[in-house]
Structure to design on (387 residues):
């Protein structure tokens, strides 16, 4: 086996000593330094009290957004932090009116459900939510999606990597069509950031959202919202709070005077402890570099695919490297029960209905872990067949 320099990071992730951890598409492993970061947060609160706001806490969203900027491929000073993707999407939606002819929100039927639930809620403000049907649960139908985006379209929420299959969508084609007809694209990079190299600025996405729970190993509560800098000043979010004011500590009453920078899209008080928790993962991903993570991910996911193909399992993931994010979805009979047996044997994966067992190596995974996971899977499926 060739030397794998990324394995030196294993020591930083306690959980990999206790199990075969292949679930980073759901919850990335916690870096050891996160405990120290959270301790630092508690110490600051304990010792500096209210003074901590002016010693870094108030600006923490911008500071940490700047850490994320190179990972996302966007300029510094363009990211605001939020509690979760749903809230960030809500802020974007609240910048738009849906009572005129341009009221369509177009997305594929393979989007993450909460992206659907949120925009369904905007029907009461006039939005017309259009779901573009796919031919299967792996890929969207690009031509159909492009045809649905027209001069009546306001927004196109688009997952760069689909959560159900890890299929990488053709964001450039969607953005090109949307811009040609005057629509805006919200790129959801949650299943990409930290495992697929991103160049969101060059793609000219109008908005990008994502969180830290998965490949960024940052835990819950720290989600990022990027807004294209030339667009930001034209937007006046309705879902807004005092942290978005140009001068929040003036406590001016009445209508808000919007801040110029990313704070414009902020709601209220920043999510300080979650951001402390998230920083460790961002530092590590940035230090390794997403390109190196991607190369390793492709190698290990290919290995999973080869095993699954040899065993004759159905794959609900693209087999072509260029079409696949960091996860492989293996569909075996009685998938949910098989997933449960894998968990009992300390192979940590998850199961999604209509998709299958999702298996996701990350930079801290070893080739041996893939072998162990796939052999365990084959043994469980074999037992079921014989039973
Ligand atoms: C692609 C994608 N978008 C959005 C979400 C949900 O984000 P949140 O819970 O932060 O609203 C997920 C969560 O798994 C996801 O995979």
């Amino acid at each position: 086996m060739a030397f794998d320099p990324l394995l030196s990071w294993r020591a930083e992730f306690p959980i990999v000593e206790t199990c075969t951890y292949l679930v980073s598409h759901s919850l990335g492993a916690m870096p050891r330094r996160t405990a120290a970061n959270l301790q630092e947060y508690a110490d600051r609160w304990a010792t500096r009290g209210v003074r901590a706001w002016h010693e870094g806490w108030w600006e923490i969203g911008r500071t940490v957004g700047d850490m994320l900027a190179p990972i996302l491929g966007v300029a510094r000073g363009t990211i605001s932090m939020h509690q979760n993707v749903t809230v960030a999407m809500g802020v974007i939606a609240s910048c738009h009116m849906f009572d005129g002819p341009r009221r369509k929100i177009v997305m594929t039927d393979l989007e993450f459900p909460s992206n659907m639930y949120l925009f369904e809620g905007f029907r009461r403000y006039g939005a017309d939510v259009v779901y573009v049907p796919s031919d299967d649960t792996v890929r969207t139908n690009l031509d159909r999606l492009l045809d649905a985006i027209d001069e009546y379209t306001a927004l196109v929420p688009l997952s760069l990597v689909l959560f159900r299959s890890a299929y990488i969508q053709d964001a450039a084609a969607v953005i090109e069509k949307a811009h040609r007809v005057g629509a805006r694209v919200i790129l959801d990079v949650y299943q990409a950031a930290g495992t697929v190299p991103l160049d969101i600025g060059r793609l000219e996405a109008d908005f990008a959202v994502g969180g830290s729970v998965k490949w960024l190993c940052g835990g819950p509560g720290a989600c990022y919202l990027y807004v294209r800098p030339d667009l930001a000043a034209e937007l006046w979010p309705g879902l807004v709070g005092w942290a978005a004011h140009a001068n929040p500590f003036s406590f001016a009453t009445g209508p808000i005077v919007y801040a110029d920078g990313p704070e414009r899209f902020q709601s209220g008080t920043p999510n300080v402890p979650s951001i402390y928790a998230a920083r460790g993962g961002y530092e590590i991903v940035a230090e390794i570099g997403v390109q190196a993570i991607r190369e390793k991910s492709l190698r290990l996911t290919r290995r999973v695919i080869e095993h699954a193909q040899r065993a004759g399992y159905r794959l609900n993931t693209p087999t072509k490297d260029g079409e696949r994010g960091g996860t492989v979805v293996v569909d075996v009979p009685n998938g949910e029960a098989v997933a449960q047996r894998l968990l009992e044997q300390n192979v940590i994966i998850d199961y999604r209905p209509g998709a299958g067992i999702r298996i996701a190596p990350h930079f801290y995974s070893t080739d041996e872990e893939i072998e162990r996971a796939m052999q365990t899977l084959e043994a469980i499926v074999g037992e079921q067949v014989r039973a």
